[in-house]
User: What shape does this take?
Amino acid sequence: MGGSFVPGIGGHNPLEAARLEAALVTGPHVFNAREIYAEMLADAAVIEAADPAALARHIRGLLANPHRPPDREAAGAYAGRQGAVLAASMGLIEPLLPA
Assistant: This one.
């Protein structure tokens, strides 16, 4: 994921890529979405690469074994659960909005 391999940027939100069930590899600098990444790591829905060498290793592994972890279905399921939370929240907010 972009913005996660150098300090100070904080990483980009992985949910769009997860909704596409893409193979997700992130760097360690993800403070913008720390909770999301922690949950996705726990679900094996994303791989964390600690440094450029680890990133290269993970990319080579994904290219050689495109159906191996991270679990793309887990990523899609996680993103779907997040979308369900948004839909439920909007259902509560919409009646309060002017017509």
Notes: The radius of gyration is 16 Å. Strands lie at 25-26, 47-48. The chain has four helices and two strands.
